[in-house]
Amino acid sequence: MKVLDFSKYPLRKKSYGGANGNKISVVIDNELYMLKLPSHAPKNINISYANSCVSEYLGSHIFNMLGVSAQETILGTFVYNEKERIAVACKDFEKDGFVLQDFASVKNQIIDSNSNGYGTELVDILETIEKQQLIDPIVLMSHFWDIFVIDALIGNWDRHNGNWGFLYNQDSDEIKLAPVFDCGSCLYPQINETLIEKCLKDKKELDARVYDYPTSAVLKNGKRINYYEFIHLHEYKACDAAISRIKSRIDLNEINKLIDELEIITDKHKQFLKLIISARFNALFE
Ligand SMILES: Nc1ncnc2c1ncn2[C@@H]1O[C@H](COP(=O)(O)OP(=O)(O)OP(=O)(O)O)[C@@H](O)[C@H]1O
Ligand SMILES: [Mg+2]
């Protein structure tokens, strides 16, 4: 896999929000990309700042692989102040007059909902999905659970209501599902080589990351959902349906190949990612 140097591409004036690291825009092959440039983890300098780029890249690819449309991503480097940093380029999906309208803003439209747009209590999310009239509620319900189930597989702890949504065209009033974006908090971006070593040697360390954390950004009775416990409760038919749908599309060899092709992480890190994905797959879906 050829690693691109993003600093060679022309910059654009578009800026992006979000709380996790710097972002700039560049044009690559006539297409606009958001470049995510994470900073060093302030508390632990041993944590590679590159991890969240790898998570963004792998997470987005896994969504696409499993039939849920996600942003296109490329891993590369960016030179700033003579220092080379790992970056991930995310193709900008706001085009042809369509802009992102996140789920939080749609939740704000539901007049009698008693929680705010960013509230992630599951029952309120489901109520919004049923009451909104922008998209067929059945289609939106399946989409929500597809994302939830894939987030469970890749251990995403940050799918808040601002991290998924719709593309809206103000001129035509058309609306459609937005590709999945912001997967930077999946696949243990906080892991470092010492912890990787521990997980490879000690089943308890690995199990904690399969059964206990990360938890979901979605809440049940005010508490972040534990993916393992929630999935095995079989409380929601639509969630079970998403599991069978997504599970039938998972090919662990294909995911392993994607990981093996990465150039910027160590072999141990690859081993860890492959192990944790297959352990999560078995624990959650078998
Ligand atoms: N591929 C994309 N195309 C267009 N806009 C995007 C794309 N990805 C993200 N955005 C916009 O940029 C914002 C910031 O991106 P992103 O959510 O990836 O950053 P973040 O800092 O990780 O966010 P958070 O605060 O959720 O951790 C998003 O909320 C969205 O509005
Ligand atoms: Mg975000």
Sum this structure up briefly.
The protein is an alpha+beta fold and 286 residues long. The protein has 10 helices and 11 strands.
Write the layout of secondary structure elements.
Elements: E1 4-5, E2 11-12, E3 22-28, E4 31-37, H1 51-65, E5 73-80, E6 83-91, E7 98-102, H2 103-109, H3 122-131, H4 137-154, E8 165-169, E9 174-177, H5 193-201, H6 203-212, E10 219-220, E11 223-224, H7 227-233, H8 237-247, H9 252-260, H10 267-285
Parallel strand pairs: 1-5
Antiparallel strand pairs: 2-3, 3-4, 4-6, 5-6, 7-8, 8-9, 10-11
Helix pairs in contact: 3-4, 4-8, 5-6, 5-10, 6-10, 9-10
This protein binds adenosine-5'-triphosphate and magnesium ion.
Distance between the termini: 33 Å
Gross morphology: globular
The bound ligands are:
adenosine-5'-triphosphate, magnesium ion
Number of helices: 10
Structure characterization notes:
Helices cover 40% and strands 19% of the residues. The two termini are 33 Å apart. It has ten helices and eleven strands. The model has no long low-confidence stretch (mean pLDDT 94). Strand 8 and strand 9 (174-177) form a beta hairpin. The strands form three sheets. It has a six-stranded mixed sheet with strand order 1-5-6-4-3-2, covered by helices on one side. It has 286 residues and is α+β, with helices and mostly antiparallel strands. Helix 5 (193-201) crosses helix 10. The relative contact order is 0.15. Adenosine-5'-triphosphate binds next to strand 6.
Supply database-style keywords.
single chain, 286 residues, alpha+beta, three-stranded antiparallel sheet, 40% helix, binds adenosine-5'-triphosphate, binds magnesium ion
